[in-house]
Amino acid sequence: MGQIAFDLPADLSPAHRDAVERVWLAGGYDGAPVPTRRHQANGRLTLTRAENESVFAAAPWPGSDGHERVVTSGTLRLARDAYPLLTELARGAVNRVRSLVAMFHNAGLPVPQPLADAVGRVSKQFGRVALKSETDTAAVCEVIDAACELADNCASRLTEYRLQARLNMDGPLPTKLGARLARPLPPDQTALFTDTFHAVRIVPQWRQIEPRESAFDWSVMDATIEWATAAKLDISVGPLIDLADGPFPDWLTTWTGDLPNLAAFVSDFVATVVHRYKREVRSWQAFAGFNHADALGLSEDDRIRLAARVLEAATESDPKGERTFALAQPWGEYLSSEDHTYAPFVFADTLIRAGFQVAAIDLEVLGGAGRRGGFGRDPLDMLQLFESFGQLGLPLEVTLASGVPAVVPTALGAPPVRAVYWDTWSPADPAGRVPATALVGADGADERLAQLRSARREWLRGPVAFAEGSG
Q1: Number of other CB atoms surrounding residue 463 within 10 Å
Q2: 185: DSSP letter
Q3: Alpha carbons 44 and 6: distance in angstroms, whole number
Q4: Dihedrals phi, psi of 61, to nearest 5 degrees
Q5: Which helix (H) or strand (E) holds 227?
């Protein structure tokens, strides 16, 4: 049993107090959160974990730009004395930027002098506040904010370097850019969609397709496939099964917690959808949310078994098609609860090691929206996430729903990423999970739509035609 205690300043703003009261511990090779018990009293927060290993602290910090982001400390050892939490978060934020600038130098990438000077200033600023006998709350918060702004600057430059290098070497990128939909769009929105995206991910609605057992209604799904085909979009279908959001037919919930029967029904539905549309579709997102959700009352091990059955059903129905799956909360925020043990990376690695042929892994970067979202992340966190999952040796896909403008070029410029999908086209579309980030609403088109359109025209190639029967 290991404990780490933190002293919390009494003069924190409400937003900063909310942040430090949600702090968690993380560690290991993938920096995943660890199960933690919390106790807070008299200005001190004590976090207890099962293992006696060094960890780092993380907190969802309210950014000066209005977007929440995660800030982390450096590595902390177990100690009797309490750490000053804000000072340690500032130390980690500054070290993160200094390490990135050092990486630029080692890689031979240019570091503009104003950026180097700014990093020097924030380092000295941190030194001054760290040496004080008592925490200067306002000054430490300023250091964290300044370091976060510099991290964004560094991430933006790294993205620019990567994008330009790839464009110079190969010309326009083959990365797919699309959005999720569950129904066809009217003509005016179709023009907006096809002018912005050259791909679409069509999300089957099981509740609508099979409202009663073995009684199917394919009208909406057929119309959506026909619409996407006529629009000459690169079509992906899925998730075929979404364990977090469903939507499941009411009759299926009768079997909650019953893996054998659930697996039979799920496999039958997957096989039926794939068989019906395999002439028009070559890419199937088999499932999503299995690493973190238990909407059908299944344990973690049972969710792994069900994931395997879904992949088997999709493979048997369309051996020439490609299969992907999506991971919810890819940074693993859900692991701070003792109800979970599989980190997102471990969940994916387990399926890959089992021998399933998977074409890509989708990472859901949905921000803090609902139970599916995690804490807000900055572009540098995203780059590190892509590098981490790139170690699995598979291409990555990314589903985005974020208000941070830099996330789009960050995802498109990352070498492992082969496709980027925006989560929510319209609040009226059932596939959207984050209405606040919808691209089209009652007030017209959101500014993100123009950003996505510009990115497509500047960096990307058009869609690749899919010939029936091709693999």
Answers
A1: 18
A2: P
A3: 6
A4: -90, 135
A5: helix 219-230
H/E segment holding residue 370:
none
E strands present in 120-272: 176-181, 199-202, 234-237, 241-242
**Ramachandran region, residue 169 (left: φ > 0; alpha: ψ -120 to 50; beta: rest):** alpha
Residues in the chain, total: 471
Contact 376, 367 (CB under 8 A): yes
- CA gap 379, 58 in Å, rounded: 16
Amino acid at 386: F
Query: From the DSSP assignment, how many helices (H) and strands (E) are in the chain?
Result: 13, 19
CA-wise closest residue to 92 among 135, 36, 133, 148: 148
* Residues forming a β-bridge with 39: 46
The whole-angstrom separation of Cα 12 and Cα 424 is: 35
Beta carbons of 358 and 323 less than 8 angstroms apart: yes
179: left (phi over 0), alpha (psi -120 to 50) or beta: beta
CA 74 to chain centre: 23
SS3 243: coil
Residue with tokens 């000077």: 117
Contacts of 347 by beta carbon, 8 Å cutoff, 6+ apart: 290, 291, 304, 327
pTM of the model: 0.91
The structure tokens listed for 20 are 């430090």
Residue 48 φ then ψ, to 5° = -120, 135
Q: Are 336 and 33 in contact (CB under 8 A)?
A: yes
Q: Which tokens sit at 162?
A: 């990567």
Q: How far apart are CA 203 and CA 286, in angstroms?
A: 11
What value does the CA radius of gyration of the chain take, rounded to a whole number of Å? 23
pLDDT, block means (10 residues), the chain with 471 residues? 82 84 82 84 84 83 80 84 90 93 86 91 93 84 93 89 87 94 95 95 96 96 98 96 83 91 96 96 95 84 94 96 95 82 92 92 82 81 92 95 82 92 94 89 82 91 51 37
Give CA 16 to chain center in angstroms. Answer: 24
Alpha carbon 85 to its chain's center: 27
Rounded Cα gap, residues 93 and 252, in angstroms: 47
Q: What is 344-363 written as a DSSP string?
A: HHHHHHHHHHTT---SEEEE
Report d(CA 424, CA 435) in Å as an integer. Answer: 7
